[in-house]
Specification:
This protein is an alpha+beta fold. About 15% of the residues lie in helices and about 40% in strands. It contains five helices and 16 strands. The protein is elongated. Involved in the regulation of the intracellular balance of NAD and NADP, and is a key enzyme in the biosynthesis of NADP. Catalyzes specifically the phosphorylation on 2'-hydroxyl of the adenosine moiety of NAD to yield NADP.
Length: about 270
Amino acid sequence: MRIAVVNNEKGSSVTIRNRFLTAIEGTEVVYDEKNPDMIVSIGGDGTLLEAFHRYVDRLDKVRFIGIHTGHLGFYTDWQVEELEDFIPFLLNDSGESISYPLLEVRLAHEDGKVEKMIALNEATIRRIEGTMTGEVFIKEDKFELFKGDGLCISTPTGSTGLNKSLGGAVVHPRLDTLQMTEIASLNNRVYRTLSSPLLIAGDEWFHVRLDDAYLEGVMMTLDHLNFSLKGVRDIEFRLAKERVHFARYRHMHFWNRVETAFIGWKE
């Protein structure tokens, strides 16, 4: 097995990285940052997102697994104190994995170029100053005319993040769906939106056409990344053909993760 390690720079994560690399010395596990089969993320969910985007071009070839040193770990199965238990599972790996859907974003530039990007959690479009205005289509059909701070489109695994903070539903990651939630929409006689989270089927997609008069200052976030949408008017959000694969050595029920993260009554 060829592995790569991605960690944040916190002292605990660096220490665990060193302990982990020492533990696999002399085994059949080879450290290979360029062509890994497995990505070990050491940190929190933010570190896992960084690892995902670093190796997004190898999604059909790699699996991810996380060792948790942060505050919240939806993507991290192992705790710091479980490192000695984790190593034997890794050394006896037989290809166990679970896959989750991803979000594909297509940006249509004014020069005709179409840019494709992938997100694990969500993408948002917002305007820095003032409100954002645009038509929202579901597939080819116009659905609403949006005016407000912005829109968030999330995957099932990303539904527990910004989407939940905006009042969206928490969605089980086995469902092939995307969810759109509004960010402070303005509703009056001219602009009218559903004003509710919206989930679509796996073979449908969202298309947002920004109003020419409000293009200046529109930004996009893609997970932890952010950039300007200057020169972009049409944006399409659909389920990606690619999927993310996590090595899964023990079953951790999704709803147990949700309860632990947000309720915690069992503690």
